[in-house]
Input
Amino acid sequence: MVRKKSISDVSREMKNKTPFPIHLSLVIAFFLGTVVCLSVAQQTPTISSYGRGLSDAEAMYINKRQLLYYKDEFGDRGERVTVDPSLVFENPRLKNAYMALQAWKQAIFSDPLNLTANWVGSQVCNYEGVFCSQAPYNQTIRTVAGIDLNHGDIAGYLPEELGFLVDLALFHINSNRFCGTIPHKFKKLRLLFELDLSNNRFTGKFPQVVLKLPSLKFLDLRFNEFEGTVPKELFDKDLDAIFINHNRFVFDLPVNFGNSPVSVIVLANNKFHGCVPSSLGNMSNLNEIILMNNGFRSCLPAEIGLLKNLTVFDVSFNQLIGPLPDTVGGMVSLEQLNVAHNMLSGKIPASICQLPNLENFTFSYNFFTGEPPVCLSLPDFSDRRNCLPGRPEQRSAAQCKAFLSMPVDCSSFRCAPFVPSLPAPPPPSPPVPVLSPPPPVVIPKLPPAPPPTVYSPPPPSHPPPPVYSPPPLPPVYSPPPPPPPPPCIEPPPPSPPPPIHYSPPPPRPVHYRSPPPPSLLPPVNYHSPPPPSLPPPIPCENPPPPPPPPPPPPIIYGSPPPPTPVYEGPLPPVTGVSYASPPPPPFY
Output
C-alpha cells in the first residue's frame, strides 16, 4: 500500500533540495518582463496564468519587474552595446550614432514592416528612416540629423543611448507601439527642433526633459497615456506648436498660459478644468486653439476678442456658462467657431455671424435664446437643442425655463483677471558714439623771422601792422602753397566708440556733429589774403572696407515653422503637411 505524502513530507523534501540558482531566476524574470511588454504591445487586455486572469496586484508586481524598468550599472535604463573593432566609421559622431541605433534595435520587440532590418554595419546614414547631413559645427563631416519611423507599427521602447544622437534635429516616431517613458538623456539633444511621439503607448508623468531642449519648436505628445499635471513652464517655452491632446492630464491652465508664443495649441480630450484663462488674449501669434472635451467651467473671457489672427476656436464639450462675448465679433480671421455642448445662454451677437471669413459656427446643445437672421445664411452652422423660438429641434420649454431661471454670475468663478502683456520693447537704436573732445591744438611758436634780404629793410622786432608794409615774401615769389593734403583723408579716429550692435531695422548712418580732428600740420598765419581752399580729398587707393551690412531682419515664421535651418542635407520628406511629421488620426 502506497502511503500518500503529507504536506509536512513535501515541505521537508523541498528544504533538503538544492536552492534554486539565483542567476536562473533572473533569466526567468527577464523572460517574463519581455512577455509582458510584448503582450502590451499587441494590445492584449489581460494576461492569463494557469487559466485565470492576473489580479491588479499581480499585474503591478510583474510590471515593476519587466524589461522597461531594467537598469544598468550606471542607473539608466538601456542596453550594453559593443562595437566590432573591424568596423570603420567616417567620424566619431557616426560611431556614437551606431551605438545609439544598435541599442534601440535591441529595445525593439516587433517590427512588422522590417523598417530596421538593414540597421547593420557602420554605414548608419544608409539605415532606413535615418537621415544624415553636414554637422553644424563642421561642414566637412556628416552626422545623423533626423529620424523618421512614422507609421511603422513598431513595438518597443526608447533606450537611454539615444542621447548619443547629439546632432539630432528631427525625431518622428508617431503611430507605433512604443511604450515606457521618455529617456532622461534626451536632454543632450540640444539641436532637437521637432519631437513627435504621438499615437504610441508612452506612460508616466509629463516628460520634463522636453523643457530642457533649447531648440525645440514643435512638440507632439498626443494619443498616449501621459497623466498628472502639465508644468506651467511649458507655456513660457519658445514653442510654435503644442499637441498634448488625448492623454490623461488633469490640470488647471495657469495664469502664464497666455505667455506662450505658439501658433497652434491643442489640449483636447484631457481632464483640464477650471477657468478658460483670460491671459489667452495675449497670444497674438495664435492661429488655432482647441480646448474641446475637458472640464472647463467658467464664462468665456471677453479677451478672446483680441485674437485677431485666430482661425479656429473650439471649446465644445465643456461646462462653459454665461453669454457669448460680443468681442468675438472682432476676431476678423475666424473661420471655425465651435462652442457646442456647453451651458451658454443669452443672445448671439449679430457681429459674429457677419465675420468675413466665418465658414462654420456650431453652437448646438446650449441655452441660447436669440439668433440673428444673418446666422442662418452661414455656409455651415448648427443651432439645434437651444432655446431659440421658431427653430426646429430645440430644447423643451420646461428645460429652458428651469435653466434660464438661474442667474449667471461670472465673477463667482474667481478667474484671474486679465493682465495685458507689456509690448515688446522697440529694437534698441544704435548707441550714439560718444566723441571725446578733440585734443587741444598746440600752436607752436613761429620760428624767428628770416634774416633780412636785399628786397626790403630789416623787419622790426614784431610783425608790423599790415597798413604799414606788406609782410615779407617767402623765397618763392608767390603766395605759399597750401599744406599738402595727406594721401588719404583718414583722420585718426578719436577714442573708439562703444561697439554698435545692429538690430533690425538697420540703423541710419551716424552723422558726426563735430568736424574731424584738424591736420597735424601747424596752422600758418598769413598776413596776405588767405590761401585757396584745400583741394578735395584724394580718394584712398585702398579705401577702408564699408561697415558690415546689418544682419537681415529675423525670419518671422508663420504657422507652423519650416524645419530647422541648421541642416542643409536630406531630411524626412514633407508630405502635404506644414511640419515634416504627418499627424496621427485625423480627429482631435
The helical segments are 7-16, 22-41, 56-65, 92-106, 350-353, 397-404. The first helix runs from residue 7 to 16. The chain has a mean pLDDT of 76. The radius of gyration is 39 Å.
